[in-house]
Amino acid sequence: MCQFFDLSSLLANISIEYNMPHYFFGKGKTMDKYQAALNYLYSFVDYSLTKNLRYSPEKFNLERMNSFMMRLDNPQFDYPVIHVAGTKGKGSTCALISNALLMAKYKVGFYSSPHLSDYTERIRINNKYISRREFTRIIEIMKPVIESIPEISTFEITTAIAFLYFSFQKIDIAVVEVGLGGRLDATNIVFPLISVITSISKDHTKILGKTLEKIATEKAGIIKKNIPVIIAPQNKKVLDLLIKNAKEKKSHFIDVSKQYKYKVVSFSLEKQIFWISNDQKQLRIELPLLGLHQIENAMTSKAALDQINELGWHISDKNIQTGFSKVKWPGRFEVISRQPMVIVDSAHNVDSVRKLLRTLNTYFINKKIILIFGASEDKDIQGMLKIIKPRMGKIILTNSEHPRAIPVEKLLHIIDDKSTIIEGSPSIKGAIKLALKYYDDDSVIVGAGSIFLASAIREEWKKGSK
After folding, report:
1. Which of 86, 196, 239, 278 could form a disulfide with 234 if both were Cys (CB 3.0 to 4.6 A apart)?
2. Please, which pLDDT band fits residue 403 given cuts at 50, 70 and 90?
3. Does residue 441 come out as left (phi exceeding 0), alpha (psi in the -120 to 50 range) or beta?
4. Going from the N-terminus, what domains does the chain have, and what CATH number goes with each?
5. pTM of this structure
6. Alpha-carbon distances of 192 from 231, 308, 348, 416, rounded to whole Å
7. For the segment 349-361, what is each residue's pLDDT rounded down to a tens digit?
8. What number of other Cβ atoms are within 10 A of residue 275's Cβ?
9. What is the distance between the alpha carbons of residues 371 and 369, in angstroms, rounded to a whole number?
């Protein structure tokens, strides 16, 4: 028999907790309690930390998540949702949509993964992260329900925290990023206002399939009957498959590559300026996110916002322009230092490495590139390095401390490259020191291969490894 959780009791308890003075919660103990909450969260099945994870119905299904949320009185139905899937660009697209809605004075929930520095980055309202105190309190109250669900995962619990938090805070709308795939992702229990599918490429092939078509089929699983879907520029086979899925579900679809165009005005390391146009009008955009792929993400976001407006919402051109111009999405071709010039990027598959190379050639065509490279063990490491190696002046192999990171010794063995441009360092700090040793005014240091590596370099640089 299904046990139901008393959500009204949860909200009452949280309300009391929020109104209590800080000392009641335990002055000086918030960090300890937060760390204990994280330890508890990570004690469950965390597939994001699992090496060589493969698909199985026991690991990936929605029955468990549906049962979990039912016991919490389905808070994900308390507000409209924009649901975003894709291989690359979904985080940037979510951030752009969220920022434009915020400029339109809506109260916006934003759920994303993974995080760069702190777990609370995954859950935010109006660009403000859930506090460690709030995060900890919700976990404490949810524990009886969590422990009643066999085989529940860390990601499912985190998703539930976000949905509950958004419900309690009475948001106007949520922008929800898919964690993995789409069809069987824990977030796919929502009935969205619209669905958005960003660029699809090969990634997580052991789980989602080895072909683009199989991967696209999993991503297409977020398309709901009669719910509009925005489709970002895609490989033709992928586009045809997504459109076929949309038609089968009688979902109105917007093919961004066909209905929207862009024209670049200028670009610098601060921003790129371009026009987005469709049949109705054109809009001048200033975007601090760099690279042509980010312009495609902006077009996709603009198409989503246009569709939301058609559904009766009110987001003006000015809201879009201001929201896009003020967006922040770290770790995506992010300049973390000008002298020396250091950039980190979350490119982690063949397609995103191609885009990284294109962006480097746009901004630094005559510069020598010193690449700090590390990757997760399940990635196409040979494929990524094959694309980027000819452009590199030096490659320094390393690894982050993430459990899925391939150790530098194994990375050196896999590559089996005896060329003088490749060296290795087992630590991020050591890799940065090596990069600085080879740096001069005619070069650029770039960290890429994994979002976890980008995060680790950002954090190490802040500490003053330079």
Report:
1. 239
2. confident
3. alpha
4. 7-325 (3.40.1190.10), 334-463 (3.90.190.20)
5. 0.90
6. 15, 11, 29, 48
7. 898 999 999 999 9
8. 13
9. 6
